[in-house]
Amino acid sequence: MKSLEKTDDMVTLRGMTLRLDPDQYLQAAEILQRGGTVVFPTETVYGLGADATNVAAIQAIFAAKGRPSDNPLIIHLRFSEQIIDFCEDVPRIAYRLMEVFCPGPLTLVLPKKSSIVDSVTAGMNTVAVRFPSHSTAQKILEAAGLPIAAPSANLSGRPSATTWQAVLEDLDGRVDAVVCDRPTEIGLESTVLDLSSGTPMVLRSGAITLEQLQSVEPSIRLRSNMIDSPVDSPANSPGLRHRHYQPRAKVVLCDSPDQFLPTDSKSFAYIGLDSDDFRIQVSMTKHCDDIEEYARTLFDFFRQCDAANIETIGCQRVEEVGLGRAIMDRLRRAAESS
Ligand code: TXA
Ligand code: MG
Questions:
Q1: For the segment 284-311, what is each residue's pLDDT rounded down to a tens digit?
Q2: Which residue in 27, 101, 175, 273 is deepest, having the highest Cβ count within 10 Å?
């Protein structure tokens, strides 16, 4: 792996992406301190990080991803005590939830402090914060000593990257460095919970399930239209206005393999919990033993299908409980207008 060559000007690094080992976290932190962009692993998916206090660094994130500027970023912090540096009016429920679930795959949306750069929050008066549990992410955050804004490390609209190879597929030459660690453990993005007004609402399902959240705070609800029509969602979750998680292949949902029927495509792939009794010839199949494996492998499978020029991917629906809600959310959005 290349090591970091010292330079005073981050701009000179752009156009060439350093590959860093996880034990080179100090170099990763140094690049972040100098306003660079660094992709690092988290327990959910890889994140494309930059200093959340540096306007130019934040602009570099949006440019690297081709992300619409109205879609705000999550700020990643090392310690839960730091929440008061960035959020106003932190309610008691936030502390209770942080005690149980943080560090981990839970993002809290709270009223923001005015010190936060507008481009991070896309001009909203709230900010999303999360405390990753991945040890490499924690080491980088601690060494950098900065709040790090980090969206998922994929080109906008594409499936999130769960391996460093997938990161490079989308972002090689577009970011300053990539920390090449193991594949991510969860494979789907964090649960986003809005605590900024009235009833606490889950805006995006993730690895921390509604059931787990309600066991701590029974008043938590799923945003009502999240399940039925995610595209027509209200402005309080700007990310849902945009295309997401889509492979180049057409994604179709089915209840079982024998319902996966021919279309005018020439090549088919399939992922699900059941994987026999096909009525058509399927060239790539991923059988998942449980929904955790389904979540962990879904985005990588989408990317493998694209690499193999698959035209249609059949995805088995799962029951909308627990982690199944997050899987169904991603599947529906991957299948939208594809
Ligand atoms: O697991 C994750 O959350 C990963 C890892 C890298 O931490 N990050 C991630 O970021 O998925 P991104 O940018 O791909 O998705 C963040 C989501 C978007 O849908 C965005 O609209 C929403 O969080 N979001 C961010 N700030 C928000 C805010 N102030 N209010 C409502 N939604 C917000
Ligand atoms: Mg994303």
A1: 999 999 999 999 999 999 999 999 999 9
A2: 175
User: Could you tell me the two tokens for 188?
Assistant: 């789907």
Give the integer Cα–Cα distance in Å for 46 and 149. Answer: 13
Ligand nearest to the CA of 154: 2
Residue 123 CA: distances (Å) to CA of 71, 112, 167, 286: 10, 11, 28, 41
Residue 87 and residue 98 in contact, taking contact as beta carbons nearer than 8 Å: no
Proximal ligand: closest to the CA of 124: 1
pTM: 0.93
At residue 40's C-alpha, the angle toward residues 37 and 46, to 5°, is: 110
- Joined together, the tokens standing for residue 27 give 């170099």
Task: Report the separation in Å between the CA atom of 25 and the middle of ligand 1, taken as the mean of its atom positions.
Answer: 23
Collect residues with CB below 5 Å from ion ligand 2.
152
Rounded percentage of the chain residues whose pLDDT exceeds 70: 90
Per-residue pLDDT tens digits for 254-273 = 999 888 887 788 899 999 99
- At residue 142, φ and ψ (nearest 5 deg) are -70, -45
